[in-house]
Design brief:
CATH superfamily of the largest domain: ATPase, nucleotide binding domain
Order of helices and strands: EEEHEEEHEHEEEHHHHEHEH
Strand content: 15-25%
Largest sheet: 5 strands, mixed
Oligomer: single chain
Shape: globular
Number of domains: 2
Bound molecules: zinc ion
Length: about 300
């Protein structure tokens, strides 16, 4: 068998830039040389950090091409990052061209949750399903829709932005410019803000979720409240899209309690036909974004 191509994969989000060398085969994949760094503030700093990381990989073993998963909306024709609400200032950036020209390598780019979906569909638990909704609950909430075994992209490649479904009319201001979006009630940033409002202390969402399971307050109350909002969004999704399964990833959902409470609520309140929808957490973890980026 010929050696698999080494692909440099990036997962660029609101809080971190993850990268690794990924080799993808027909039935298996390999992820190694994983690195993670905080996302710098400002468009140019983000671009420069990505280039710096890529040059470092090039000097230490090299790679054939680059795949990038971005927490934002990508124009399907031009591949320009149109908007990335959780990465400050990252609008209308032709990251593919900038990084490609600088490195002299072929670059592919797509929305991060679409990458997550590609990886789960090829190697993960959704291989056997045709109608799937993917959600990632990290800084914000991202989503992707698979219909008849294919990613549904919509007219402008932005289908699946479930994080910006309006859950509370006239609710909290969102970075997308609207108010009352789902991610303002369930996303990691929202949980951290609620914790800060109640205590005056900063605490990471994953720690709030972790402490909630140990019955620490106000962590438990914050997670309980978020689980009801999580349920509201899930009910909207199962009632309108009727997927066989919803697969959820992201750092916040590592709180099993939040998901358990949300599923109980969802099973009570969704339409009878939609009650059958399975809810599962990803078993590929954060690697799914990088593996999906390598599959582009
Ligand atoms: Zn929004």
């Amino acid at each position: 068998m010929p050696p698999k191509a080494k692909i440099l994969a990036f997962d660029v989000g609101g809080t971190k830039i993850a990268s690794a060398i990924v080799e993808v085969g027909a039935k298996s994949y390999k992820v190694y040389d994983y690195q993670r760094t905080a996302t710098p503030v400002g468009k140019d700093n983000v671009i420069n950090k990505i280039i710096e990381i890529a040059i470092n990989y090039e000097e230490n073993g090299g790679f054939k091409r680059i795949g990038m998963a971005i927490a934002g909306q990508i124009d399907e024709k031009s591949d320009v990052v149109k908007n990335a609400p959780n990465i400050a200032g990252f609008t209308n950036v032709n990251l593919k061209k900038i990084v490609g020209n600088k490195l002299g390598k072929y670059v592919e780019i797509d929305n991060d949750v679409k990458c997550f979906a590609l990886a789960e569909n090829k190697y993960g638990q959704t291989k056997k399903y045709k109608h799937v909704v993917y959600l990632t609950i990290g800084t914000g909430i991202g989503g992707a829709i698979e219909i008849d075994d294919k990613l549904y992209r919509g007219a402008n490649n932005t289908a699946g932005e479930f994080g910006h479904m309006i859950i509370v009319s006239g609710g909290e201001e969102c970075s997308c410019g609207n108010v009352g979006c789902w991610e303002k009630y369930v996303g990691g940033k929202a949980l951290e803000q609620r914790y800060y409002n109640l205590t005056g202390v900063r605490k990471e969402a994953k720690d709030i979720a972790f402490d909630s399971e140990k019955n620490v307050e106000p962590d438990q109350e914050i997670i309980k409240q978020a689980s009801l909002y999580l349920a509201t969004g899930l009910i909207n999704i199962v009632n309108t899209i009727n997927p066989e399964i919803i697969v959820i990833g992201g750092s916040v959902i590592k709180s099993e309690e939040m998901l358990k409470l949300a599923i109980e609520e969802m099973k009570c309140k969704s339409l009878t036909s939609a009650k059958k929808t399975k809810i599962a957490t990803t078993n590929m973890q954060d690697e799914a974004f990088l593996v999906g980026a390598a599959l582009l």
